[in-house]
Amino acid sequence: MPDTEWVLIGEVAKSHGLKGEFSVKYYADSPLLLDEVGHVWLSTAGGRPKRFQIRAWRGHQDRVLLWLTGIDGRDQADDWRGAEVLLKESELPAPEEGGVYLHDLQGLTVLLEDGSRLGTITDFILEPQELWSITTDKGEEVLFPAVPELVPNIDLEAGTVTIAPPPGLLDLYLKKEEADG
Cα-atom radius of gyration of the chain, to the nearest Å? Predict the structure, then answer.
């Protein structure tokens, strides 16, 4: 399994109830993925991922409650607090037409509509809305709202994402660079 590409789909926040459910901060688009796959992998810091069958899941507030085979009771659920909820990349269904997975965007070159290079996608912030952390060639961080209207093109084969930032957004991050340069 060392060559397996893992995809983070959530994090165990806390146990919930007495039977062994836990509350998961869920990062994938839809929890219906859990029905399709039928299992998840849990991994604690630096630990080897362990596979669990899904007994049941349900939405609860802004989280997903997950009940897994082999986790029977609150104490066992508490043992997994802070664990990563993972899937193997090969277990994911193909994205919908025109869709991409976030892990496919990491490391892509970000271009502006005029073709100039802004930087590289280095991270994601998923709450309260999806933001891409773009690191410029000068090492500055730009937080960019990832909404379809502002992302006219994603070309995975070319390794590029073209963005159309609203007027003034980049000035918030890059004005200091221009003033210093």
Answer: 19
Contacts of 159 (CB under 8 A, 6+ apart): 107, 108, 109
How many domains in the chain? 2
Length of the chain: 181
CB atoms near residue 66 (< 10 Å): 28
Residue 40's nearest CA partner among 14, 65, 82, 10 is: 10
- CA-closest candidate to residue 41, choices 89, 101, 84, 76: 84
Each residue's pLDDT, cut to its tens digit, for the chain (181 residues) gives 334 688 889 999 999 999 999 999 988 777 888 999 999 999 998 789 999 999 999 998 888 999 999 999 999 999 999 999 999 988 988 887 777 888 889 899 999 999 999 999 998 887 678 899 999 999 999 999 999 999 999 999 999 999 999 999 999 888 654 444 5
Residue after which a domain boundary falls, among 63, 91, 119: 91
Is 97 inside a domain boundary? no
Burial readout 120-138 (b: 16 or more C-beta within 10 A, e: otherwise): bbeebeeeeeebbbbbbee
b/e per residue 158-178 (b: at least 16 CB within 10 A): eeebbbebeeeebeebbeeee
Domain stops at, among 46, 72, 91? 91
